Amino acid sequence: MKKKIFVCCGLILISVVILMKGHFLLKPIAKIGDDSVRMYEFIGYSLSNEQQILERMADDIAFKKIIEETGVTVTEEEVQRELNALNEHSDISYETCLNTILHQKAIEKYASEFEVTADKARSYYEDNKWRYGEAEPDFEKVKSDMQMEMGVAKYEERLYKIREECKVSITK
Fold first, then answer.
1. For 137, which DSSP code?
2. What does each C-alpha distance from 9 to 4, 5, 6, 13, 22 come to in angstroms?
3. Separation of alpha carbons 12 and 126, rounded Å
4. Between 139-165 and 94-111, two packed helices, what is the crossing angle to 10 degrees?
5. CB-based contacts of 31: which residues, under 8 Å, 6+ apart?
């Protein structure tokens, strides 16, 4: 008799676990338009696109490493100020705004490492006249533009090197 009760309790417990897992998998977790996305659909999609998802995660890790390396930071107030300015025209998320500001600050940090002489600025202007139109150029603006372009190049080069270190390998 004890054995039958033990087996019945075990079967009931297994049934409850299966029902709970089934409910979890069938539960809608998001909406895309009018359609609900269920957990099992999301998991299936994720598994079929695991390489792409892992590559995206590697990109995120590389970005975090370059931000740590440059030491740039953003305050809550900076993000909120930018969000308030953008909210009239954009539906940008907090995280996207934060990352955009961090990205810009990292580029500015790299740009600040370059000294641009008047001769270099004149040469840069001559190569990029189309950007400045017909008006007499403001050479402080030209110097700043050149510095930022050099900062972008250094940022992208460094990010590429860091990303190369973040190779994705799937273990099965």
1. P
2. 9, 6, 5, 6, 20
3. 81
4. 110
5. 37
pLDDT digits (tens, 9 = 90+) for 130-152: 888 777 778 888 899 999 999 99
86 Cβ partners below 8 Å, 6+ apart?
92, 97
CA 87 to chain centre: 20
Residue 93 DSSP symbol: -
Q: Beta strands of the chain (E only): which ranges?
A: 28-32, 35-38
**Lookup: tokens for 152:** 């972008």
Cβ–Cβ < 8 Å for 47, 38:
no
Separation CA 156–CA 111 (nearest Å): 12
3-state secondary structure of 37: strand
- Residue 33 Ramachandran class (φ > 0 left, ψ -120 to 50 alpha, else beta): left
Structure token digits, residue 104: 């810009």
Give the E-state strand segments of 28-130 in sequence order. Answer: 28-32, 35-38
Write the pLDDT tens digit of every residue in 82-138. 888 887 777 888 899 999 999 999 999 999 999 998 888 889 888 888 888 777 778
Q: How far apart (Å, rounded) are the C-alpha atoms in residues 43 and 20?
A: 17
* Coil vs helix vs strand at 2: helix
8 A C-beta contact, residue 42 and residue 29: yes
